[in-house]
Write a structure and sequence with these properties.
- There is one protein chain.
- This protein has 365 residues and is α/β, with parallel strands linked by helices.
- It has helices spanning 20-34, 95-107, 119-130, 155-176, 191-199, 214-226, 264-276, 296-314, 334-337, 349-357; strands at 7-12, 37-41, 54-57, 110-117, 135-139, 179-184, 204-206, 232-237, 280-284, 320-325, 328-333.
- The strands form two sheets. A seven-stranded mixed sheet has the order 3-2-1-4-5-10-11, with helices on both faces. A four-stranded parallel sheet has the order 7-8-6-9, with helices on both faces.
- β7 (204-206), α6 and β8 (232-237) form a beta-alpha-beta unit.
- α1 runs parallel beside α8 (296-314).
- The longest helix is centred in the middle third of the chain and has 22 residues, at 155-176.
- The structure holds 6-O-phosphono-beta-D-fructofuranose (F6P).
- 6-O-phosphono-beta-D-fructofuranose (F6P) binds next to loops.
């Protein structure tokens, strides 16, 4: 296919999140204004090679997707291009795959490729850049754990879903005088647990960044009982390690695969039930926090990211990633963006606010 106008390629990679379609729509609309055509590669990086799979993207066929969750392009987590196996473990992409991508880009006259993804997907984009493939990055993840941007889109929507779950759990917990444990996502960082816990009035918040003990968690529950509150709400990040230092996983590690976390909520609830002889219940929010329509904040952030990504291609600023540095949307080199994950600061204002309210983080402070 030869395009009349210079063509921008767009792909969405890794775990999906609300706001991906908002980026795609914004990029397509702004491409049109700057004289680019657009195509979308399907199933993340997979659609770039063997077989090459893509679809034209136009203002007409992206109309109405602003509010839709998921991604119209599909996504792949940990496919043939995986460039990480864990937080700091980088892999080199097979050079024949990189050559295949460069070939596709040439064949389709793609003048710039917008890669929308989290830490792992941006590490792939960085290797594309080193190989001479013209890429720009757009950060997304519900976990909000990319250090170079104050917020990623998807996070606010996930926090909203988790807060709604806490609101619902609060009333049933009170009716039955139960201890409710909500497990939320957050592999390396406890941002979702922290923000939802503050917004939903949790009594205990457990995050990967703060070591905690069962004694301290149980003490908080007993303190509440001593003032007549026999119900308690706990929110636990899936990546919060047990006091033994172990993470709770659903599956064992396979080569090139991320450990599937999950189950810590059940472990915490079981131990509390045993230690305090109280009724506990666990809810694992799971992918409910990744689906559905983006919040207004995420729609705006995703839209600003999409427009700037096209502008960066227009200006030839390849190898850079858009980011949010309040109050401005800016850009940073992808290479530096993937160097540092953003974690909850145990001495930061959000944790201090929680402590100020009497929320327990399961530690002894
Ligand atoms: O990285 C985002 C994330 O939501 C993590 O918090 C979670 O561990 C992971 O995705 C789950 O991914 P999958 O869709 O493979 O279950």
């Amino acid at each position: 296919m030869k395009n009349q106008k210079p063509c921008i390629g767009i792909l969405t990679s890794g775990g999906d999140c609300p706001g991906l379609n908002a980026v795609i729509r914004a990029a397509v609309l702004s491409s049109e204004r700057l004289g680019f055509s657009c195509i979308g590669f399907l199933r993340g990086y997979e659609g770039l090679v063997d077989p090459v799979e893509y679809m034209p993207l136009t203002p007409a066929n992206t109309s109405g997707i602003l509010t839709q969750g998921g991604t119209i392009l599909g996504s792949t987590n940990r496919g043939r291009f995986a460039a990480t196996t864990g937080e700091d473990n980088r892999l080199s992409i097979d050079p024949s795959l990189l050559a295949g991508v460069a070939h596709t880009v040439r064949q389709l006259d793609v003048c710039g490729l917008i890669c929308i993804g989290g830490d792992g997907s941006l590490a792939i984009a960085d290797q594309f850049h080193q190989f001479g493939i013209p890429v720009v990055g757009v950060p997304k993840t519900i976990d909000n754990d990319l250090g170079a941007t104050a917020f990623t889109f998807g996070f606010d929507s996930a926090v909203s879903a988790a807060t709604d779950a806490l609101d619902r759990l609060r009333t049933t917990a009170a009716s039955h005088e139960r201890i409710m444990v909500l497990e939320v996502m957050g592999r390396h960082a406890g941002w979702i647990a922290l923000h939802a816990g503050l917004a939903g009035g949790a009594d205990v918040i457990l995050v990967p960044e703060i070591s905690w003990t069962f004694e301290s968690v149980c003490q908080k529950i007993m303190d509440r009982e001593s003032v007549g509150r026999r119900d308690s709400l706990l929110v636990v990040a899936e990546g919060a390690t047990l006091p033994t230092g172990d993470m709770v996983c659903r599956t064992s590690i396979n080569v090139n695969e991320q450990v599937k976390l999950g189950g810590i909520g059940q472990v915490v609830a079981g131990e509390i039930a045993q230690r305090l002889d109280r009724q506990t219940r666990t809810v694992v929010l799971g992918h409910l926090q990744r689906g559905g329509s983006p919040t207004t904040f995420d729609r705006v952030l995703a839209t600003e990211f999409g427009v700037l990504a096209v502008q960066m291609i227009h200006e030839g600023r390849f190898g850079e990633m858009v980011c949010y540095r309040p109050p401005e949307i800016e850009s940073v080199p992808i290479a530096s963006a993937i160097k540092r994950l953003s974690r909850v600061d145990p001495n930061g204002s959000a944790v201090r606010t929680g402590r100020g309210l009497g929320i327990s983080f399961g530690d002894t402070c």
